[in-house]
Amino acid sequence: MINKITLALLLMLFTFQIQAQCWKTMDGGHMFSIAIKDDGTLWGWGSNSNGELGAGNTPYKLMPTKIGTESNWSSVSAGYYHTVAIKKDGSLWTWGNNRQGQLGLGTSVSEYYEPQRVGTENNWKSVSAGSHHTMAIKNNGTLWGWGENREGQLGDGTRISKNIPTFIDINWTMVEANAMNTLAIDDGVIWKWGNFYSQFETATPEIFGDDSDWKSIASTGSHSMALKNDNSLWAWGENGKGELGDGTNIQRKIPIKVGNSTNWESVSVGINSTKAIKNDGSLWVWGMNNNGQLGDGTNIDKNTPTQLGSSTEWKNIFSGLEHTLAVKKNGSLWSWGFNFNGQLGDGTLTDRNIPVQITPPCIPLSVSDTHQSALQIFPNPSKDYFSINTKDVKQVQLYSLDGKLIKEYTPSDKYTIRGIVKGIYILKITDSKEVRSIYKLKIID
Q1: Element (H, E) at 76
Q2: Which of 8, 49, 120, 190 is the most exposed place for a label (fewest CB within 10 A)?
């Protein structure tokens, strides 16, 4: 049996390496991608022409590249050429293009190539980057905005741009900054302000519609998608490329329901394109597809939701302007679409119209997930098989040290390893109470 000290050493040596490869959240900008891993590290790839990656004054990155050395990042949002993020301590950080004051630093410096702290407060809850403006919510529910404001997109009643966070209103749940406008939710009600491409225009928050059961919004400004509490999906705005998914190319000024399904889990939008995941893990796409951003193997626009392949393993979906990022349930990262500056992260500048795997599966496991048990793995080292000294086993998974899932077993008296290359592997064992244990297994010839 592996004793407590040995298990702790294994966790230090292996768990953190493996967990570091799991993606927590990400976002896509104009031609760049920015992400946070489960270990709190920040990663970026694609264009860095305005410092939007935060990687210093360096050219574009063709593959996911670690930004800095810190491991306390919590959330991130990508604008057109700027990035905003919140750390675990509630501090707010920005970098990239600042020509409209969208970084909120109170300066006229045009670009910042490394993360800069906004003020000294540690009470920021969420932040959203629009094309050239930024909106954020504090822990007390107050809403703040800064950056470009010539269309009234900050919602402060003026059309004067701001280069420091400016108070807008109280009691907000979520906010979505877009191109020339902003959408937000307060107690299930959607509010709007800014220029919505001739659909409406206002410089102060106004209620949008009569419904009060909205849960989340995804918008580029030209078209918007929203989920209700019953998990139905609704759309409005421009529809020239079929991005609303209602089977037409007709602009809609009020929300229209997308089909009859009430099993939508999440939705993401790019310019004139939409991608959404249902609660069964299937991925659906529609709208503009000129650069393969729908990932269906064509470059043909779609005006109704079209399932992407047959996989039901999709977990999260994110959109850049014309590229798409997605994470499967096994933690692997995939991307497709426009790749002019390497924003797909596959090491090339080639557009892709089918999903391309960027990083392998990982073990979404931290120390808090593990449990010191009386399990024994024998024999260890093993040649042809190994066994576990208990029948209380729900799942057994064998991983390589780089986090790739090698084999998944159903409970058995013996677990075969024939055909697996010799070396050191990680066993993740889950019992009937969902308690997980980690062990090192050495496979020999």
Answers
A1: strand 73-78
A2: 120
The pLDDT tens digits for 48-91 are 999 999 999 998 999 999 999 999 999 999 999 999 999 999 99
Cα(90)–Cα(88) distance, rounded to whole angstroms?
5
Residues 317/308, Cβ–Cβ less than 8 Å? no
Please provide the average confidence, as pLDDT, over all residues in the chain.
Answer: 91
Contact (CB, 8 A) for 32 and 67 = no
Q: How far, in Å, are 16, 175, 228, 234, 312 from residue 252 at the CA level?
A: 48, 22, 18, 11, 31
Which amino acid is present at 100? Q
The whole-angstrom distance between residue 347's C-alpha and the CA centroid of its chain comes to: 20
436 pLDDT more than 80: no
pLDDT at 174 over 90: yes
Tokens of 181: 């406008």
Give the Cα separation of 234 and 217 in Å (integer).
10
C-alpha count within 13 angstroms, C-beta hemisphere, residue 144: 22
Q: Is 15 helix (H, G, I), strand (E, B) or coil?
A: helix
Q: How far apart are CA 414 and CA 409, in angstroms?
A: 10
Among 424, 419, 376, 422, smallest CA distance to 399 is for 424
Q: How far is CA 306 from CA 15, 267, 287, in A?
A: 38, 14, 10
Helix (H, G, I), strand (E, B) or coil at 208: coil
pTM over 0.85: no
Q: Is residue 64 within 8 Å of residue 56, measured between CB atoms?
A: no
What residue ranges define each of the domains in the chain, with the CATH number in brackets?
Answer: 21-359 (2.130.10.30), 368-443 (2.60.40.3080)
**What tens digit of pLDDT does each residue of 17-30 get?**
444 468 999 999 99
